[in-house]
């Protein structure tokens, strides 16, 4: 890594959410909840994803048992919907969001570290990252089953920053969900919101640094921002 990057250059690392930000997997999960929902709750359940995006497994268990009662068989529901997601994934692949390859390539070119901080399980995260051949671009992955408190709690971002060896304000977070933005904001990490399923950003207005339409826009913005000091320093290194 280019350790001579000037202090004034920001961001010094970029932290990525995963589902909905890098991959269009939230839609696959939503469709699977609709498909198996009638068996477990008597209704399609996909609409719940708008409230659970960014949560880890433990938080989702609590959420669904609050909605459907303590006897809601979350483990059986989880097994059933994950089976449907695997079917969708086999048929459709893991949908990569526009601009992800370009953004990762640019960060590598500029020697800016990248990490993943996702509410999904480590197994699910690594599987998606490996299948899409982008795992090698990341320093490490912090997953939802590796932290005690899920987004919107800031714990996952504080842990990620600590592992990067950076102060929260030195990093940049990329998120697609309200819970993710809330977590980043609470951690003190500037966050760019790239909306996916949650198109209405009003609940988190004032918490994000910028809102952009795609990861392609993020790359263009970074190129403009880093075209001065960081690029000159890299050429001198």
Write up what this structure looks like.
The chain has 237 residues and is α/β, with parallel strands linked by helices. The chain has helices at 25-41, 49-52, 57-68, 74-92, 100-109, 122-131, 155-164, 178-187, 215-226, 229-236; strands at 13-16, 114-117, 141-142, 171-175, 191-193, 210-211. Strand 2 (114-117), helix 6 (122-131) and strand 3 (141-142) form a beta-alpha-beta unit. Helix 1 (25-41) crosses helix 4 and helix 5 runs parallel beside helix 9 (215-226). The termini are close together.
Kindly name the structural category: alpha/beta
Count of helices?
10
C-alpha geometry: globular
**Uncertain spans:** 1-7, 229-237
Main β-sheet, in a few words? 6 strands, parallel
The overall pLDDT average reads: 91
Largest sheet, spatial ordering of strands: 3-2-1-4-5-6
**What is the gyration radius calculated from CA atoms?**
18 Å
Helix content: 40-55%
Binned strand content = 5-15%
Distance between the termini: 11 Å
Q: How many DSSP-defined strands? A: 6
Please write out the topology.
Layout: E1 13-16, H1 25-41, H2 49-52, H3 57-68, H4 74-92, H5 100-109, E2 114-117, H6 122-131, E3 141-142, H7 155-164, E4 171-175, H8 178-187, E5 191-193, E6 210-211, H9 215-226, H10 229-236
Parallel strand pairs: 1-2, 1-4, 2-3, 4-5, 5-6
Helix pairs in contact: 1-4, 5-9
Question: How would you summarize this macromolecular structure in one to three sentences?
Answer:
The longest helix has 19 residues, at 74-92. The chain has a 6-stranded parallel β-sheet, with helices on both faces. Strand 2, helix 6 and strand 3 (141-142) form a beta-alpha-beta unit.
């Amino acid at each position: 890594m280019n350790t001579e990057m000037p202090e004034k250059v920001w961001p010094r690392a970029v932290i990525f959410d995963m589902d909905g930000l890098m991959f269009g997997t939230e839609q696959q999960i939503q469709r699977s909840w609709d498909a198996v929902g009638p068996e477990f709750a008597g209704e399609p359940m996909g609409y719940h994803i708008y409230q659970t995006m960014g949560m880890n497994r433990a938080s989702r268990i609590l959420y669904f048992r609050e909605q459907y009662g303590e006897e809601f068989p979350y483990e059986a529901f989880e097994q059933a919907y994950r089976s449907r997601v695997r079917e969708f994934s086999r048929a459709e692949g893991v949908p990569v969001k526009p601009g992800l390859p370009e953004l990762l390539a640019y960060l590598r070119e500029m020697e800016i570290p990248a990490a993943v901080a996702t509410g999904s399980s480590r197994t699910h995260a690594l599987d998606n990252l490996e299948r899409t051949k982008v795992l090698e671009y990341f320093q490490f992955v912090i997953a939802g089953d590796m932290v005690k408190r899920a987004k919107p709690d800031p714990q996952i971002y504080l842990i990620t920053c600590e592992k990067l060896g950076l102060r929260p304000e030195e990093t940049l977070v990329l998120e697609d969900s309200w819970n993710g933005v809330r977590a980043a904001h609470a951690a003190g990490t500037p966050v760019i919101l790239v909306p996916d399923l949650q198109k209405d950003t009003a609940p988190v207005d004032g918490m994000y640094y910028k809102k952009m339409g795609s990861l392609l826009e993020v790359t263009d913005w970074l190129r403009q921002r880093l075209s001065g000091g960081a690029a000159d320093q890299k050429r001198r290194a």
